[in-house]
Amino acid sequence: MASIPFSELHIEPLTKRHNLNKFSCTERDLNDFLKNDALNDQEELTSRTFVCIYNNKVVGFFSLLADATRVQDIQTYDNVDGYCYRKYRAMKIGRLATDKEYERKGVVTYLYLNICGASFKILEIMGIRFITVDSKNESIEFYQKMGFTKTNVKKDYPTLYKDIHPIFLKLQRQDRKLDD
Fold first, then answer.
1. Which one in 40, 93, 96, 138 has a CA-CA gap of 20 to 30 Å to 159?
2. Gap between the Cα atoms of 123 and 87, Å rounded
3. Which residues have CB under 8 Å from 156's CB, separation 6+?
4. In terms of pTM, does the model score above 0.85?
C-alpha cells in the first residue's frame, strides 16, 4: 500500500467508543498502554490520548502531557536572553505508535504534524517553549529527523526536545505578510 493521503486520515480524542481490539503495533507496551491505561490516565488527568482514524479503524495514536525540562539540560539554553527560571515549560509526547499494518504509509508523519498543531493550540492559552519526548533507542533517529535534539541527561530512555519558538516566529511572519 502506498502512502495514505492526509485527507483520508483524521484525529479524534480517545473515548470508550473506539474499538482498539485490532490495533497492534510492534511494541507490546504501547499496545498495552492504549488498550488498558490510556482512558484511565485521561480520567486521572495525567495525559490525553488521541487516535488516528483511517477507514473507521484506529491506525495510530499519541498521548500528550505537561512537562518541564531543566534549562541546563538544553544545549541551546544560553541563547535565550533574560530567561530567569530553572525549567522550561514543555508539552511531552508520552506515547506515539502506528499499527504495524500501516507503518511507512505516512501515518506517523500525520501524527507528528498533529502533535505540532496541538502545541500551537496550547500556546493560545499558556506558555510552552519545547516539545519533549523520552525516546526508546530505536526511535531516536526518527525524532532527530523531525528536528529533535538529545538533552545532556544520560538515562535509559533519552529525553529529546524540539524548540518550537523558531516555528512560532516563522508562522507569525507569515501571518503578518498575509495581513499586509
1. 40
2. 17
3. none
4. yes
**Under 8 Å CB-to-CB from 119, ≥6 apart: which residues?**
91, 128, 131, 164
* DSSP β-bridge partners for residue 48: 64
Query: How big is the chain by its Cα radius of gyration, in Å?
Result: 17
- Written as tens digits, the pLDDT of the chain (180 aa) is 679 999 999 999 999 999 999 999 999 999 999 999 999 999 999 999 999 999 999 999 999 999 988 777 776 555 555 666 678 889 999 999 999 999 999 999 999 999 999 999 998 899 998 999 999 888 999 999 999 998 877 788 889 999 888 887 877 777 666 666
DSSP tag of 105? T
* Cβ-Cβ contacts under 8 Å for 61 (sequence gap 6 or more): 14, 23, 34, 38, 49, 50, 51, 52, 95, 96, 97, 111
Q: In the structure grid, which three cell numbers stand for residue 15, read together?
A: 473515548
- Cα distances from 47 to residues 63, 79, 117, 133, 170, in angstroms, run 6, 30, 17, 13, 29
Backbone angles phi and psi of 5, in degrees to 5 = -60, 140
Measure the CA angle with vertex 143, ends 137 and 146; round to 5°. Answer: 165
Residue 51 CA to residue 77 CA, distance in Å, equals 33
What is the grid cell recorded at 179? 495581513
Residue listed under C-alpha cell 518541564: 68
Give the number of other CB atoms < 10 A from CB of residue 27: 15
